Amino acid sequence: APAQTGVRLVRKPYLPEIVEEIRADFLELEALAQAGVRRARTRRVETPAGVPVPPVLGFATTSADLVEALAYGGFRPGEILAACGLHYSPEDLGGNYLRICRRNVDGVIVAGTKSSRYPEKDVFLLGPLPKTLARHAEAAGMDGLLFPYPATDRLWTESEYRNWREDYFVPIARSHGLGSESDDPYALRHIYATLRIAAHHPTLYIEGSMGTGLVGRVYGGVIRRYEGKGPLDIDAEIEAARNAALAKRPRLKRRPS
Predict the structure, then answer these.
(1) Pick from 13, 79, 135, 214: most CB atoms within 10 A?
(2) Of 114, 103, 104, whose CA–CA distance to 6 is shortest?
(3) Around 132, how many Cα atoms within 13 Å sit in the side-chain half-sphere?
(4) Is the bond preceding 77 in cis, omega lying within 30 degrees of 0?
């Protein structure tokens, strides 16, 4: 699958606020790209921390929804990048699920998930993600990819995914305080596990969605503000984080180089 670097231990808890800050930066990058701003010798776009990122339209219009899917679906990148419209809202489960039965390995569809224990899995979608994937499924049609390579209808290659990760996700993630141990999009799986644990979802169900038996030992994080309270309202938690992040616009700066 594109740039699946394996399990990373996230030493700093991955809060919903961080996910939404990253997503909001991508939304503003998308707006700048649509307005015609391009990377040029005399102009650059910077994150709030002063990190330059290229406002190229194709990547910009894909990134915010892809970050949301990775965080609130707990997918491995190669899984969501192989999913098509047919897989959204299985008839026996409905719109809160996406069925994963294949993965993208360097631009080639391979049957099954990365784990032989979970050749197929039905992923429970959190927060706003069902509506986001419904929109992508409607645009894609039954056989179209939910997240094709930007401006095409084809699969991403590993090098294309790596370029997106290094040129976009990493600098934006680091501008929000993430270090090298947690600046990979793969690490967004941790927030999915952490939120569902805080909501008191059974571990067996979380593992079934994520396709791994490592939820308690690796993926679940400790967020102290959730401790000693009742089950977390995931939808409300994500909504509050999203509203706070979007209220901070403008986020990106345009400066001469």
Answers:
(1) 79
(2) 114
(3) 19
(4) no
Residue 50: Cβ-neighbour burial (10 angstroms; 0-12, 13-18, 19+): exposed
Long-range contacts of 228-231 (CB under 8 A, 24+ apart): 230/200, 231/198, 231/199, 231/200
Q: At what angle do helices 57-73 and 189-198 cross, to 10 degrees?
A: 40
Collapsing DSSP states into helix, strand and coil, what is residue 60?
A: helix
Q: How far apart are CA 132 and CA 73, in angstroms?
A: 11
pTM value?
A: 0.88
Summarised one tens digit per residue, pLDDT across range 157-211 is 999 999 899 888 888 888 888 877 777 898 898 899 999 999 999 999 999 998 9
Looking at residue 166, its amino acid is E
Place of tokens 């309270």: 229
Residue for token digits 């899984």? 79
Radius of gyration of the chain from its Cα atoms, rounded to whole angstroms: 18
Tell me the three state secondary structure of residue 160. helix
Mean pLDDT, rounded, of the chain: 84
pLDDT at 168: 85
Positions in the chain short of pLDDT 50: 1, 3-8, 10-11, 39-42, 257
Q: What is the DSSP string of 73-127?
A: H---HHHHTT-BGGGBS-TTT-TTEEEE-EEEETTEEEES-S-TT-SSEEEEPPT
Cβ atoms 245, 24 nearer than 8 A: yes
Instruction: Note the residue count of the chain.
Output: 257
H or E segment to which residue 189 belongs: helix 189-198
